[in-house]
Inverse folding.
């Protein structure tokens, strides 16, 4: 059972909390109906993502066995059989669809988004991840699908700035993760991914700079937009840009200086500095929209 849990990677479910962003950015954090719908969507996306993790490990099992870290994964190490891996793919996706049945009202769009996410990621695992740039764009678009699902599940209209920021921020994180792959290729002489040879440090550094800069600009534009000021009845949200900037700089420091950008989820779970910045951002945002 321990190896099965490792295979479906529940610690990675933290990524799916992004489906709650529409609730947070709309100021409905204390709306219990919206929170319930958001949590249902969170678990549905988490089960669908676990299904993809199983498929990815099945496809990459030979490469993982040669990887210094991934060789310890349940399928690569032989702790879980390939057959059981296939069974888990369909069990997890079935759980995803079953979970969505608890959403109140009619939510065909949410079903559609998760099915599109699942099919897109199957294509990614089978073929599309072999193409540089396309691979990181698909990863980033997967998070856009998450936030769209969260908006439709809770009947919250999303700001165009939030959608753009989500894509750009996740693209930034995906490039930072690829940087870790390039560093490993330089050290070992063997690319951890088939498309790693189409990346190098100079390109990745420029891509990180571009995406992080545009992300920050998008966030500032969101906070000072007439739409946002009118919605929250405050013009002080721009002050939270400080924490966004510091958070981005911290992540670049981890990627470029410390060279530990391989797993964004583990960084968020372990790096105290990032946790404090995210907490301060959240508290300052809530304080401004509820008390100023």
């Amino acid at each position: 059972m321990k190896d099965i849990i490792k295979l479906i990677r529940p610690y990675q479910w933290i990524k799916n909390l992004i489906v709650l962003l529409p609730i947070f950015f709309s100021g409905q954090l204390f709306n219990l109906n919206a929170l319930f719908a958001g949590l249902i969507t969170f678990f549905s996306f988490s089960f669908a993502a676990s299904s993809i993790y199983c498929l990815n490990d099945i496809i990459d099992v030979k490469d993982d066995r040669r990887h210094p870290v991934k060789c310890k994964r349940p399928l690569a190490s032989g702790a879980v059989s390939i057959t059981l891996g296939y069974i888990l793919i369909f069990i997890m996706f079935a759980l995803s669809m079953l979970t969505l049945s608890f959403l109140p009202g009619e939510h065909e769009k949410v079903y559609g988004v998760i099915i599109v996410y699942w099919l897109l990621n199957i294509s990614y695992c089978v073929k599309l991840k072999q193409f540089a740039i396309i691979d990181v764009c698909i990863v980033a678009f997967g998070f856009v699908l998450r936030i769209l699902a969260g908006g439709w599940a809770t009947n919250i209209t999303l700001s165009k700035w939030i959608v753009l920021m989500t894509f750009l921020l996740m693209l930034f994180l995906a490039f930072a993760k690829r940087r870790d792959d390039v560093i490993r290729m330089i050290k070992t002489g063997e690319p951890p991914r088939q498309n790693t040879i189409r990346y190098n440090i100079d390109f990745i550094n420029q891509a990180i700079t571009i995406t992080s800069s545009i992300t920050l600009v998008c966030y500032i534009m969101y906070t000072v937009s007439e739409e946002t000021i009118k919605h929250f009845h405050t013009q002080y949200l721009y002050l939270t840009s400080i924490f966004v900037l510091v958070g981005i700089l911290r992540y670049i420091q981890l990627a470029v200086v410390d060279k530990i950008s391989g797993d964004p989820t583990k960084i968020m779970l372990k790096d105290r500095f990032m946790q404090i910045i995210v907490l301060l951002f959240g508290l300052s945002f809530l304080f401004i929209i509820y008390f100023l």
Observations:
- The chain has a mean pLDDT of 91.
- The longest helix spans residues 160-188.
- The chain is about 75% helix and 0% strand.
- The two ends are 50 Å apart (CA to CA).
